[in-house]
Amino acid sequence: MTVSRALRDPERVAPATLDAVRRAVARLGYLPNGSASALASSRSRVVAAIVPTLMNSVYASTVHGLSSVLRPAGYELMLGDSGYDPRAEAALVRSFLGRRVDALVLTGVSHADETRELLTRHALPVVEIWDLTAHPIDMLVGFSNVAAGREAGRFLAARGRRRWAFVGSAPAQEVRSGKRLRGLREAAREAGVQPPLTAFVDDGMSAAEGHAAVGALLDAHPSVDALFCANDALATASLRAAADRGLDVPGRLAVLGFGDFDVAAHTRPALSTVRIPGHDIGTHAATALLARLDGGPAPGTRTDLGFDIVRRESA
Amino acid sequence: MTVSRALRDPERVAPATLDAVRRAVARLGYLPNGSASALASSRSRVVAAIVPTLMNSVYASTVHGLSSVLRPAGYELMLGDSGYDPRAEAALVRSFLGRRVDALVLTGVSHADETRELLTRHALPVVEIWDLTAHPIDMLVGFSNVAAGREAGRFLAARGRRRWAFVGSAPAQEVRSGKRLRGLREAAREAGVQPPLTAFVDDGMSAAEGHAAVGALLDAHPSVDALFCANDALATASLRAAADRGLDVPGRLAVLGFGDFDVAAHTRPALSTVRIPGHDIGTHAATALLARLDGGPAPGTRTDLGFDIVRRESA
DNA sequence: TTGTACGCGTTATCAC
DNA sequence: GTGATAACGCGTACAA
Questions:
Q1: Which nucleotide is nearest to B9 (CA to C1')?
Q2: A78 with A68, same domain?
Q3: How far apart are CA A230 and CA A233, in angstroms?
Q4: Are A200 and A237 contained in the same domain?
Q5: Which residue has the closest alpha carbon to C4 C1'?
């Protein structure tokens, strides 16, 4: 018991005892058993996060943001990827709850019924990220995907573009990307231009697929003068597809990306893109979680971190 | 006890009992407590992985590879990033050991003394990844960074390039990148060309820094006719820096990247690059771990997964 | 096939 | 300031 105290709360132990404990710890290489601690205290000091994919860098900065504030606070990160599948997400939630994580970070606001049931039963702090909704499960840190799509459309309209196309996953496959398409459609109506054409890809992050899909689109619809891509990998591939056809960007075709990937500033032409504060989403979400875990006043935080349109050369 | 059996080994329980248990489980929303299970069995069914950074996609596919074989086997992934700092890595190892993870994945083969001590005391399966060494801690799945650099150099030499430069982190900062530089130097000697120039960046993944550093290099040394970049983000930035100066790639300047990022095939010109089997490294490492965890014959696996030079347009 | 007793290594609680 | 005792919720070993 004294050892336990000495390690967790050195102040409450006599200096001499503390010293003796520390010496013994060093000599034995003693490391407190986290499982036992978790069992006894019912606090695991583990936070789990579920992102749609680990395959690429989209959510990497968010994960980094999470870990950069959780770890210094003594929490470890458990990570899972749902592959954009709500049922896979539910399975992960179940597993994480079984491991008694202290809190959960969920990407997006649409979840399987099972997920909601589980979370209702095992009440624990939850943050949903990367989107907005009027009825979050608990806390929320994100931005409006619909607004992002709408602003993208307004941006294109303001530059005189009249024939738009959207490049990305089908809405059924990727909810947030679908919301951006919805916003784009609204903007088209608002601007009095035709509804945007669509070039859907199976794997929303595959530059190769994007390259092919955009090529087909450009060939079939030569009148297209603006592309809004669901991410910068697709946008980079679009740049290439345009170049292959001798289409000047932005002269003949505007290309607007999404995500502001690291390379966006260095493509040729440099990508205009929608920048999402991915890292900040992570740090804010983690901070909200910590406040709650430290027994704070439990505010149902709902934070809109917004987005920016970064104008470079491609649009 | 019967419940415990019913859940873990349904075969060993009478059908009727099993059914009753399942009904009760469903009704109560019962989820076995992982901490208690871990404490009683001294198996946490958690594997921890430490990568240098979560900020970008370099290690993303490896992490995905790990999780794609670990999770179906009932293991969860705990993730940490060392920021390329051996002392931070040691701190993570300590934390993970305290949480009694069943196995550990470490990136690279050079570690702080403390890390080695910890791992010696708390013997557990360990896989080192993304490099090779004659004396791994335990198991190893990677490729030779020196050989990668050497082959990159031979590739440039074979294309008649005589004045090479390396773009990346300083060797002291990033060991594996330093090994590739070493390989490049060997190839230069072999080819009878001058030792490569170097443009070091502080943040090895920052395209912005790369853009500036390469610009300065090209201005100061107009004779440079080949660039070997430590990663494709830097290479993309180099492409742009060359374009800014009206230097034809590959005519006047060859650019060879590293990593084969998703966008590499779609830059203009398309990037020639060294492809690392990042995903495979993850799946192989996880498979080796599982074999060991399932009480296998504990072979000190040492796997060289190699690399390829993908020739596109830039070199 | 099922159940009993005990221990895993901590922490909460309450004496001292 | 320190220690004794009793959980925490499982799994192991063995008995019924």
A1: D11
A2: yes
A3: 9
A4: yes
A5: B1
Quick: pLDDT tens for A136-161. Answer: 999 999 999 999 999 999 999 999 99
| Confidence (pLDDT) at B306 | 98
Separation between Cα atoms, residue B309 and residue A66, nearest integer Å: 35
Domain that holds residue B116: 43-143+279-305
Could you give the strand order of the β-sheet that contains B254-258, starting from the edge strand earlier in sequence?
B197-201, B164-169, B226-229, B254-258, B272-275, B308-310
One domain for residues B207 and B247: yes
Beta carbons of A215 and A227 less than 8 angstroms apart: no
Q: Are residues B149 and B139 in the same domain?
A: no
Alpha-carbon distances, residue A53 vs A30, A287, B15, B306 (angstroms)? 37, 23, 39, 26
pTM comes to 0.94
- The sign of the torsion formed by the CA atoms of B290, B296, B301, B303 equals negative
What is the per-residue pLDDT for B54?
Answer: 83
- List chain A residues with pLDDT less than 70: 297-299
C-alpha to C-alpha distance for B65 and B69, rounded to whole angstroms = 7
Are the C-beta atoms of residues A309 and A274 closer than 8 Å to each other?
yes
Strand D bases within 7 angstroms of protein beta carbons: 1-5, 7-13
pLDDT along chain B (315 residues), means of 10: 92 92 94 97 97 86 95 96 96 98 98 96 95 96 98 98 97 95 98 98 92 97 98 95 96 97 91 97 97 78 96 97
- The total domain count for chain A is 3
pLDDT at residue B159, as a whole number: 97
Cβ–Cβ contact A207 with B under 8 A: yes
Claim to verify: residue A211 and residue A160 sit in the same structural domain: yes
Q: Is B215 helix (H, G, I), strand (E, B) or coil?
A: helix
**Same domain for A81 and A114?**
yes
